[in-house]
Amino acid sequence: MRPGYLNLTTKELAQKIEKLLNLLSSCCLCPRECGANRLKGEMGFCLTGRYAYVASYNLHFGEESPLVGVGGSGTIFFTGCNLGCVFCQNWEISHTTESSVKLIPDQLAEVMLELQKKGAHNINFVTPSHVVPQILEALPIAIKKGLRLPLVYNTSAYDKKSTLRLLYPLFDIYMPDTKIYDPDLAKKYLLARDYPEVAKTAIKEMHRQVGDLIIEDSIAKKGLLIRHLIMPNNIAGTEKWLDFIAQEISKNTYLNIMDQYRPCGDAHKFPELMSTISYGECKRLIDLAKKKGLTRLDKKDLSKLLFYLK
User: Fold this and answer.
1) What is the CA radius of gyration of the chain?
2) Is the pTM of this model over 0.90?
């Protein structure tokens, strides 16, 4: 299947890049709309100015099975973030740009090409919402030098619909998280009261663009893959997210119900966040998803639960 970005002319891609870069002058790229002049190096909530910062890149074998395949997913981990999750499991790179490297477009393009050369099945941009102009700046350089892999938009789902529309048809696979459903809890733990509505709108737009996940020869080629992290004390509102996905997106959605929550970052400041997820709770929620018609469940790292996924 031909990657979406190859369907654009050089002129069309250049126009998208220009529009996205213009959003950085008084930044309104994401729902924060912090107004920082990132083109002049000012840093907004995301701690990122004119250029993207990368913490690491590698062939990753811990992603969902259709992304990993045999060769691995070519992940690029950006530093900074437009959310402020107090329990973030990537705290060291999401809340600081220390130990990261600033990459200009030519360098970011070379990273993509290196991952392709190493055998990656895709280029997986982790936390891309605040650096989409920078990603697109690098893309024509990489295309000219032979990039031909699907692009993965691996996001918290705190994305503006208008920004996502500018990205069409560049990203083949959208992989949003569904974090916290209740606005008051989202304000408390994500520093974004509008997260639930923003995320639902964003996921609908993602699905409109790419549809349900298409897998060929066990490898994801195009479509939507949703993640949901189970949290202690039902803070995430898992059942409501399952209802949203089943009723407003598609019962054919490929879904990863993740049980690996552990207290990280500033979670120690919130006693209700200090427990982990039990086997029984994970099993209950997987069964609940199936009852709601969501049966395309990822089997990665769920060996102890494979019985319930059969």
Assistant:
1) 19
2) yes
